[in-house]
TrEMBL record:
<feature type="domain" description="Histidine kinase/HSP90-like ATPase">
    <location>
        <begin position="26"/>
        <end position="183"/>
    </location>
</feature>
<feature type="region of interest" description="A; substrate-binding">
    <location>
        <begin position="1"/>
        <end position="357"/>
    </location>
</feature>
<feature type="region of interest" description="B">
    <location>
        <begin position="358"/>
        <end position="573"/>
    </location>
</feature>
<dbReference type="InterPro" id="IPR003594">
    <property type="entry name" value="HATPase_dom"/>
</dbReference>
<protein>
    <recommendedName>
        <fullName>Chaperone protein HtpG</fullName>
    </recommendedName>
</protein>
<comment type="similarity">
    <text>Belongs to the heat shock protein 90 family.</text>
</comment>
<comment type="function">
    <text>Molecular chaperone. Has ATPase activity.</text>
</comment>
<feature type="region of interest" description="Disordered">
    <location>
        <begin position="221"/>
        <end position="246"/>
    </location>
</feature>
<dbReference type="InterPro" id="IPR020568">
    <property type="entry name" value="Ribosomal_Su5_D2-typ_SF"/>
</dbReference>
<comment type="subunit">
    <text>Homodimer.</text>
</comment>
<dbReference type="InterPro" id="IPR037196">
    <property type="entry name" value="HSP90_C"/>
</dbReference>
<dbReference type="InterPro" id="IPR001404">
    <property type="entry name" value="Hsp90_fam"/>
</dbReference>
<keyword id="KW-0067">ATP-binding</keyword>
<dbReference type="Pfam" id="PF00183">
    <property type="entry name" value="HSP90"/>
</dbReference>
<dbReference type="InterPro" id="IPR020575">
    <property type="entry name" value="Hsp90_N"/>
</dbReference>
<dbReference type="InterPro" id="IPR036890">
    <property type="entry name" value="HATPase_C_sf"/>
</dbReference>
<keyword id="KW-0963">Cytoplasm</keyword>
Amino acid sequence: MPTETFEFQVEARQLLQMMIHSIYSNKDVFLRELISNASDALDKLRLEALRDDTLGADVSDLHIDIEADKDARTLTVRDNGIGMSHDEVVRLIGTIANSGTAKFLKELKEAQDPAAAEGLIGQFGVGFYASFMVADEVTLVTRRAGESKGTRWASTGEGTYTIETADDAPQGTSVTLRLKPADTEDQLFDYTSPWKIKEIVKRYSDFITWPVKMAAEAVEPTADAEGGADGENAENAESMAPPEPETLNSMKALWARSRDDVSDDEYHELYKHISHDWNDPLETIRMQAEGTFEYQALLFIPSRAPQDLFSQGHKRGVQLYVKRVFIMDDCEALMPEYLRFVKGVVDAQDLSLNVSREILQQDRQIQLMHRRLAKKVLSSIKEMMAAHPERYATFWREFGRVLKEGLLGDFDNRDAILGVSSFATTHDEAEPTTLQQYVERMKEGQQHIFFMTGESRAAIENSPHMEAFRAKGVEVLLLTDPVDEVWVDAVPEFDGKQLRSIAKGEADLDTEEEKKEVEAEREKRQQEFAELLTWMTARLGEDVKEVRLSSRLTVSPACIVSDTHDVTPALQNMYRAMGQ
Ligand code: ADP
Ligand code: MG
């Protein structure tokens, strides 16, 4: 097959331009990304070999090699993992699948200062393309396990890439970077320096469960090897056999180590590897379960919601390991849907390595773990609320809408979810309130927690329904997320107080006595206006059920009220939007 030239997809081209012009200041992370991909490829191969014994791949020595050539100014990262087929190379390397890319690029263009742009790149993460921050040409040679022919992909990042068949490619993937000249002049940025490579691997990839090795030629002699009493013996040994490549990472599973042994930075790097996010997480949650069913969990709450949190097919769930062996990504069975933003690792001691998604869904132990993990996440949010109010505010802004979905289905945890939820309120323009705080502020004789749903704060505040409440100084929660329409019907009360919509039925604002007075007054006036009301009911006909005098308006002349069990206008809109 001759060399084919392809054009990068538009989004990919734009992203590459930004990498080439390097608006991201921490260029070292390119190596983290390559090692992360290599590690994923090794995980995939081991799993595939486990499930398919006709694959015929050698899985006895899975590892990652780093090879630097100072003279040629190249750096190669090689793995003997799953590899990619010709089509996979085109699909995975030539295009960007992430659905948020277009939006991201638009924001990036609008971001005026470099710091804002850098923040966006960090949030998005660019994976393989990060190589173009330090290289002016990237060559990838790969052969998929089970296939006989390999593929060579090469690009300078300038709009096109070439693909040709590589007959002699070993199974797995190697990525070779031709480093930009500027990077080799300064020791700090010389990515062919063994010292530099070691430092980056230690810093970003230490926990990777596969050995990351560096060819011995490239390893500078350490103090131990140079001096010492038996220097002569070492020399003799060297002349007999080439020295073993050095393994740079410790490969320790962070979740199995005690909290005191692991730095926050180490946890954060693990988070970045599994989430593909370049930012630190908001919260790290550790859990050790002992007893008959032993497992460890290391969970993370990201600091920003991903673009596709509400799109169909959003990946959710944590990584599942069994006795330190990676089993699967996105293990849905371990995390409820409303906690789909949680990332992390769960390592179980007593599951079979062959466990499938179907088995997991039905496994009683897994269901138990699922419940305990959900409770642990909710209690951690509660702790965050008390100890770090600012962090909690960020959490709520990013994930509150998702968490509230749990009020619909998770009866067990309903109170826990209500307890960590907050809501916009007429009490304060800027600060949301918890239900607990609302209850503490309730007026003498106020029986219910009042709320109104709507499209925006302004829309609700301008609603005629608000008038009586404003006049009386009664606090109203302003619920503007689409999910609010739904959960308010499912949640009858908090702390013994009913949740009442002010837009439905009779707004119960007054004490019993006041109510009797008002009712008597209304009766009287209803009589007075009987003729007018009958006439109006007849005129409006089909459009209304009833026309009655209102006790709730102070300024507006009229308003439309639904029956207590009717669908609200906003929910009608939502159903309409969903095509129902
Ligand atoms: P991400 O890792 O977030 O998916 P990347 O840009 O890092 O994004 O990589 C894109 C895709 O290319 C990966 O998802 C993977 O399918 C494929 N890929 C990259 N590197 C390798 C590799 N060393 N071996 C096999 N597949 C790889
Ligand atoms: Mg990647």
